Amino acid sequence: MKFGDKVRELRTKKELTQTELGKLAGVTKRTIAGWENDGRYPQRRELYDILAKVFEVPTSYLASEDEEFITNAAERFGVKGEQDAKTVLTQAAAVFAGGELSDEDRLAFMTEIQQLYLESKDIAAKKFTPKKYRKNDLR
User: Could you report the per-residue pLDDT of 26-74, keeping only the tens digit for each?
Assistant: First the structure.
């Protein structure tokens, strides 16, 4: 189940409107609608914790491996990074269309692909971003 589906299901079980949930989470109704309808994800990790408290579920239920990866990419590399992360996941998932890998092997592959993506983005950012625009660069 995707993040937006989880939010919608949990919100309706708690009998909350999108506006009410937005106030509890510190975001707008539009943000909640984006999660539920447009396949968007929280751009800040702490939102997963806030939502988990509101819904009384573990944070891990809301932030699966793929969603955590997308959020991490969005935080580190912006909207383009988020879009690229979704593309990586979609294309990597296509590799398993034949269903020849076990779930354990599939998870290991996906985890490694995600790590490689983030590492390559970091390397590219250091290589191609002028020093005056770099964040957290100790050089």
Answer: 999 999 999 999 888 887 888 989 999 999 998 878 877 677 788 788 8
Q: How far is CA 104 from the centre of its chain?
A: 21
pTM to 2 decimal places: 0.54
Amino acid at 103: D
CB 7 within 8 A of CB 36: yes
Is 79 within 8 Å of 120 (Cβ atoms)?
no
Q: Tell me, what DSSP letter sits at residue 39?
A: -
User: What distance in Å separates the CA atoms of residue 93 and residue 116, rounded to the nearest whole number?
Assistant: 16
CA 65, chain centre distance (Å): 8
| Domains of the chain (ranges, CATH numbers) | 3-62 (1.10.260.40), 65-133 (no CATH)
